Amino acid sequence: MKPLVLNPRKLYLADHALAAAFSPAEGLDRGHLLENIVACELERTSREISCKTREGFEVDFLAVSYDGSERLIQVCADLPDATTRNRELRALECAHQEHPAASPLLLCGEEPPCSPDQHIAEMSRNMAGI
User: Fold this and answer.
1) Which domain holds residue 54?
2) Which pLDDT tens digit goes with each residue over 30-79?
3) DSSP secondary structure letters along 32-77
4) Of 130, 62, 128, 74, nearest to 101 (Cα)?
5) Does residue 56 sit within a domain?
6) Number of domains present in the structure of the chain
7) Residue 57 and residue 60: Cα distance in Å, rounded?
């Protein structure tokens, strides 16, 4: 019998400094903090929904704006190597196949080391666009 693993529902805090203050210094996860910032912005501008594909990949957000436009948004602190980049893009591409009307976007905390045609953007330069 295979054990069942369930991920708890994600919780986002409106105060990013409070979230960082209650994280242990050695356990501070920059990716989670960046995801929290994006979640708060999406809360202001759209109805945001977590997205899991039929194949089991998770994309951080399927954001449906109030005008009806859809965006698939994956957030990561950095893309240190091709394996990480491919994993993040695979989930985004799989979700895009299931939601073809949604515009895919991979937001990175650092300057992404890849070509601009892959829907990858640096977070600090693109927050206004989400």
Assistant:
1) 30-129
2) 777 888 888 888 888 887 677 788 888 889 999 998 888 999 999 988 88
3) HHHHHHHHHHHHHHEEEEEEE-TTS-EEEEEEEETTS-EEEEEEES
4) 62
5) yes
6) 1
7) 10
Highest mean pLDDT among 5-9, 44-48, 108-112, 116-120: 44-48
Q: Which tokens is 39 given?
A: 């979640």
Bridge partners (DSSP) listed for residue 70: 64
CATH number at residue 118: 3.40.1350
Mapping DSSP to helix (H, G, I), strand (E, B) and coil, where does residue 113 land?
Answer: coil
- Written as one letter, the residue type at 127 is M
CA distance 48 to 50: 7
Distance CA 51, CA 3 (A): 23
- In 3D space, the residue among 60, 61, 124, 114 whose CA is nearest the CA of residue 86 turns out to be 114
